[in-house]
Amino acid sequence: MPAPIRLRELIRTIRTARTQAEERAIIQKECALIRSAFREEDSTFRCRNVAKLLYMHMLGYPAHFGQLECLKLIASQRFTDKRIGYLGAMLLLDERQDVHLLMTNCIKNDLNHNTQYVQGLALCTLGSMGSAEMCRDLAGEVERLLKSSNSYIRKKAALCAVHIIRKVPELMEMFLPATRNLLGEKNHGVLHTAAVLITDMCERSPDTLSHFRKLVPQLVRILKNLIMSGYSPEHDVSGISDPFLQVRILRLLRILGKNDDEASEAMNDILAQVATNTETSKNVGNAILYETVLTIMDIKSESGLRVLAVNILGRFLLNNDKNIRYVALTSLLKTVQTDHNAVQRHRSTIVDCLKDADVSIKRRAMELSFALVNASNVRGMMKELLHFLDSCEVEFKSDCASGIFLAAEKYAPTKRWHIDTMMRVLTTAGSYVRDETVPNLILLITNTSQLHCYTVQRLFKAIQEDISQRQAEQDVSEAEEPAQRREHDSIKQPLVQVSAWCVGEYGDLLLSGSCDEDEPLQVTEEEVLDVLESMLQSNMSSSITRGYALTALMKLSTRFGSTVDRIKRVVSIYGSSIDVELQQRAVEYNALFKKFDHMRPALLERMPIMEKSSSNGLTEVAETNGEAEPIERAPVAAPTPSTNEVSDLLDLLGGNEDAPSQPRGPSAPAGDLLTLLDGLDIQAPVLGTASTPQPQTFLLDSLASIPSDAFNNAHPAIPPIVAYEKGGLRIDFSFERSNTNPNVTVITLHASNSTDADVSDFVFQAAVPKTFQLQLLSPSSNMVPAKNSGGISQVIKVLNPQKQQLRMRLRLTYTHRGTSMQEIGEVNNFPPQSWQ
C-alpha cells in the first residue's frame, strides 16, 4: 500500500477546494484511505493517519472511528506516538463512552514513566477527560506526583488534582498536605496552579476554608515579593511582574478574608500597597486593580481602604476603554449600599456617563444615578435624569420614568415640586410610563388640597398643547405605515388621562382663575368642554382615555351651570358607541340625567382625601415587584391596569370552578384579578373603573394602627424555610412575630442566585386563602447578582386572625441569560410557629 499523504499536504488540498461539496469529497476520500489503513493494522503510518483525522474532527467531520487507534498510540513506546494518541483521546473521547476506561492502565504506567514529558501527557489527559472512576483509581498517583521535586510535574499534577476534586469531592483530604507545601515553591507556574487548587478546595468545603486561612500571611508575603521584585524578563507583562499570579492570589485572598476579621486584618496592608503602587496606564494594571477592589469590598476591610477602592473605580470611569467604564459602574452599583458617601463623591462623573453612546454603560449609569439620589441632592439629580429622559432611547424611557417617580415620592422637598416633576415626566415620557403612574398621580393630587387650583390649571395648559400636537401629528400619520401610526397614537395618553380626571374633578377651580400661578389661566365653560370633546372625537385617544373624558364631562355637569344641556347632548351621543365600555358609561350617565337627576349632585361630588396608610394587598399582588409601592403609598384612585398583565395571572392558582364569569375585554380588568384569586377563596373588593375613581375597602386597614417598630421585638424561635430552589435560583423565607399584634406574621424573602449569570427583571407574586390578609412591600432590587454575590430581600406581612395553617402560592418571572422565565409553585411547609 502506498504511503499516505502528509498532514501538511492534506491541509493544502482542502484549502484549494472552491465549494463545500468539493471539500466534502476530499474529506470522504481521505477518510476511506484512513479506514483501510486502520483495517490493515498499518502501524507505520498510524500516527500520521490519526493526526489527519484530528484535523478533520476540528473541521467538524466525524472521526469517532479513530478512537481505538488513539488507544494503540498511547500504548506505544515512542513519544511521538504517545503525544498524538493522548491528544486524540482528549479530543475524541469523554467520560460518557466506556472506551475511555481502557486507557486507565496506560495512564497509570505513564504516570510512573521516567520521562517528565510522558508524565505530563498522562496528567494533562487525566485532568482533561478523566471520569470519576478513573480519578478514584489514579488519585494516589497524582498525589505522589504533587510531592515531586520536578516543578514541571508538580504544576501539571496540581491542575490534575483540581479536576479530580471536582469529579470526586471526597478525595479532597488526600491532597491537603501536599497542597500546603506547594506555596513554598519559587516557580511561578507551581504557585499559580497551587492558588487555583486551594481556591477550588475553599469554595467546596467550609472546613478546608478554615484550614487554609492559616496560610494568609504566606500568601501576603508571596504577593509582596511580586510587587517589590525588580524587572524579570521571564514574568514581566507590560512592566508588571506576573500579573496572572497576582490576580489569582488576590482572588484567593478574597475567599479567605470573607467574614473573617483576623484574615482581613492580615491582608489590609498588602491590599493598600497593591492599590497604590500598581501602574494604571496599561490594561494589565487595571485588571490587578479591579481584582484588588473586589477583594477590598468582599473582606472586612478598613473604612479608609474601602474609600480607596471606590476612588479607583472612580478613576476607571474616566478611562477611554468602554469595558473598563462598564466594569466600574457595575462595581459601584454593588458598593453604593454599603459605601454610599464614598460613591457620592463621584456623582458628577457618573452622571456624565448618561451621555455615553454605549447603551450598556448608559443603563448602568442610570441605575447607579437613581441609587445615589437622596434628600440633599434630589433637585439636582432629578434635573439631570429628566434631561436624560428627554433624550434617551425608547427602551430606557419606561425604567427611567419609573425610577424618577419612586425617587420623587421618597425624597420630594415639597408637594408642588413633586407634582411638577411627575407632570414633567408624563409630558416627556408620554405613554412609556407604567400603568400604575396614573392612579399614583391622581392620589397625590387628591391628597394635596392646597394645590388643586394650581394643578388643574397646569394640566389644562398641558392638555391644550397636547391637542395641538395631536392635530399636527394626525396630519403626518395619515401618510405613515400602520406601525408608525400606532406609535404616534399612543403619545402622552397618561398625561391626557390625568388631565381629564383633574378637569372633571376640579373644573370649578379652573374657571375661578385664582391660584398661585404668575399668569392665572382664564377659560370659559365652553372652552373646557371643547377640549374634552376633542379628546372623545380624536382617533388618537385610546378607549381608556375616552372613558376618562366622558366621566369628566359628567362630573362637570355639577360644577358648571350654563352648559349642562350641551353635556347631556354629548353623553347621549355615545350611548350608541361601538366601544362597549364607552357605551355602557354613556347609558348609565343618561340614566342619571333622566331617572335619578335628584341624586346626581351627591353621586358626582368631589372625591374625599384618601388615606395613604391604607393599602389593598390584592392590588399589590397584581403589581410587579419593581413597580409596587410601599403600603403607606399604595394608589387608591382608580387604577388602569394593563389587561394583559392582569390576565396573565389567571393561571397562577387555578381552581376557578365557583368563579363568576367575567368579560375578557378591556372593560373588566378587575374581574380578571378576582378570577385569579378565586382559586384560594380570597375575597377581594371590586376595583373602580378607570375613569371614575372611588375609595376602596382595603384588606389591611387593621394594620394601619400598628407602629412601625412593632416587628422589631419578634420571637426568634421560628425556623426559616426554603420556599423555592431551582436552576440556581433560591428563595428563603425567614419569619418574625409582632408583640403588638400576635396575629401578624412578617415573612422576609431573600432571593439568591448561584449561577454565573445575573437574574434580571425579577418579579415575585403571591396569593393566600381568603381567611388571610396579604401585604407585599417593595423589594430591594429587581436583579439577583450571580455567584451568590448579593441578593434581593422583600417583606411580606400576613394577618392570620383565625390561626389557620398558612398556605401560599407563588409565581416568579425573571430574565436569565437573555431568556424570559416563569415559574409557579406552592409553599405548604410553613413552620407551625409561624401561624399558631
Q: How is this structure best described in words?
A:
This protein has 836 residues and is of the alpha+beta class. 55% of the residues lie in helices and 8% in strands. It is built from 37 helices and ten strands. Strands 3-4-5-8-7 form a five-stranded antiparallel beta sheet. Strands 6-9-10 form a three-stranded antiparallel beta sheet. A hairpin with a 2-residue loop joins strand 1 and strand 2. Helix 13 packs antiparallel against helix 14. The longest helix is centred in the middle third of the chain and has 26 residues. The chain is elongated, with a radius of gyration of 35 Å. It starts with 6 loop residues before the first helix and ends in a 9-residue tail after the last strand. It is found in: Cytoplasmic vesicle membrane; Endomembrane system; Golgi apparatus. Its main location: membrane. It is a peripheral membrane protein. Keywords: Cytoplasmic vesicle, Golgi apparatus, Membrane, Protein transport, Transport. InterPro entries: Adaptor_Complx_Large_Subunit, AP1_complex_gsu, ARM-like, ARM-type_fold, Clathrin/coatomer_adapt-like_N, Clathrin_a/b/g-adaptin_app_Ig, Clathrin_app_Ig-like_sf, GAE_dom.
